[in-house]
Task: structure prediction
Amino acid sequence: MGKSTVHRILKDTKQLKTYKRQKQPKLTERQKQNRLKFCKDKENWTADDWNNVMWSDESPFELMHASNVQNDRVWASDSTNVPPNETVKNPPKVMVWGMMSCQALSDLHFIPPKQTVNAAYYVDNILSKTCLDAVNRKAKR
Result:
């Protein structure tokens, strides 16, 4: 029995459809409980309460990122008219940290290559400089 026959039987006879699986973070029970507690603790916060919160995160960015072959299409009369998609085997990457709040927006902090972001680096280079600069800029306004 071929693939298309199986698909047709599942679709027509069993009234089944194909669905794309949704991504979901894999969380432990403790992590779920901590998230629920955080939400319940903040349930009655006002806009003034949230004005005192700063959100920060870091993210890696791949330079010269290869395009998604499923979405990269070129309209042409002949395949010889399609330019190649040049790629780099090991593209350079950069790790960037940023912070935002109702009060301030930080400059981006570019973490040096091969730098481990431990507590000391985070306090000395990110919180003490980049984050504090953003808060002080807002205070001067």
